[in-house]
Amino acid sequence: MMRLEEKKKENLEYYGPPLSSQPHPWLVICPSRKTQTFFSISEDQSYIRSIPELGNALIRAYAQEWLVLEDFDSSNCYLWNAISNDKIQLPPLPYDDQLLCLLSAPPNDPECCILFLIHETTHPDNDDDENSNDDTEDENSNDDTDTNDDDTDNENLDDDDTNDDYPDDDDDDDDETDVNDDDTDNENLNDDDLDSNDDDTDNENPNDDDDTDSNDDDTDNENRDDDDLDSTDDDTDNEANDDNQDDDVNNDENAAALYLCKPGYSQEFHKQDLKSIIGDNCFSVWTVFKGDFYALTMQTRILLRLDVDDSSGTISATPMTYEPPYNYFTEYLDMPRFGNYLIQSEDDNKDKVELLYIRMLFHGREFEDVYKIIVFRFDFVNKVWEEKKSIGETAIFLGPCFEGTTCCTRGTNIKKESIYFIKGRYLCIFNLETQSISVSLPCPHISKTKPPSYWLKLMDGRVR
């Protein structure tokens, strides 16, 4: 009987996240849909878990122990409590393969709001349905040989979509085979286009398009101009103009919009066009600071506070300053790739809370190596940004999707003056004081080269 109870306890721990009183975030690595690895930076120890909720979903945001999850299969979003296993279903949302989300507070907080930034796109299942109809028509009009070729092409496309969009279902042993395949694909991509890394950056953070894709846009514009010069048929020109008009209509339909609701209370999201709020269809980065939403504009890097009217559900923008954190036109112009982070920093007692803007600069042949990290804090009294030459006993943790968190290093094995970030399987530490980088492999048992990873500060909000 005693052994049975111990076995149940082991299963309970295996199917739930490791909980402890540690004040620093967990590094959560998801190499497959079956298991997750929770790595403790201070303990230098990993814990393998199998949590169904994390195996079939992406983590879009979190507040304390509450996580905003997006289901892989249905793309539905819901709140999940990692401690109590409670769930709160959210109203339906339009599909966006790269949606962004902020959760201002746990849902038991009366000020809790959840905010989504969505560029509405077509769900892949709908594309498959349309392709299947097209294939049916082709089968009716083409011979058997053409039909077999189409089927083969569709199978290859499906395989690629599965590998790109979802974590592998295989075990770690199977992951090794997938790693070789992925590496081969990456090598081919690098040979064909040296800008593939910029594309990866875009997938991580769609709000950085202006920084990384300016060259691509210029190339596209040049190609369009060449096409216009080569065309000699008036009918062709008219058709091209009609196509451009259709593209403009589609761009308006797919313009960015903010979707706001109060979890557990709102029956539907309140939608508001982003351009009507900030005057643009995108912004650089955003975050939650002291329960409010903040964002940096894309071109001017102006800090805005997004104010929510609870009675009407509308959002308005209040400029906090008109001065950017840095002078973009005079500093680091030779660094075409960089990452932006806007995060809240606080100590254990929450006595000192700061809004930080972090700029990560890349260099190297393919701009994959971190060259420098600059940290700014916002002075709410004087309404200016100030560069921090030292972060002292604060450690900063930057995620792969341009989100981050902080913790106090006092009483832990976490290094002072350090900024932790992930590069594939590797854990990198940038020392702000010495401007040096150290690299380690925290979980050697994970063979996948670029597994989905997150920094999670799991705190039980019920304990006070």
TrEMBL record:
InterPro entries: KIB1-4_b-propeller (IPR005174). Transmembrane segments: none annotated. Residues 122-251 are annotated as: Disordered. Residues 38-121, 255-431 form the KIB1-4 beta-propeller domain. Residues 126-251 have a biased composition (Acidic residues). PANTHER family: DUF295 DOMAIN-CONTAINING PROTEIN, REVERSE TRANSCRIPTASE TY1_COPIA-TYPE DOMAIN-CONTAINING PROTEIN. This is KIB1-4 beta-propeller domain-containing protein. It comes from Solanum verrucosum. The lineage of its organism: Eukaryota, Viridiplantae, Streptophyta, Embryophyta, Tracheophyta.
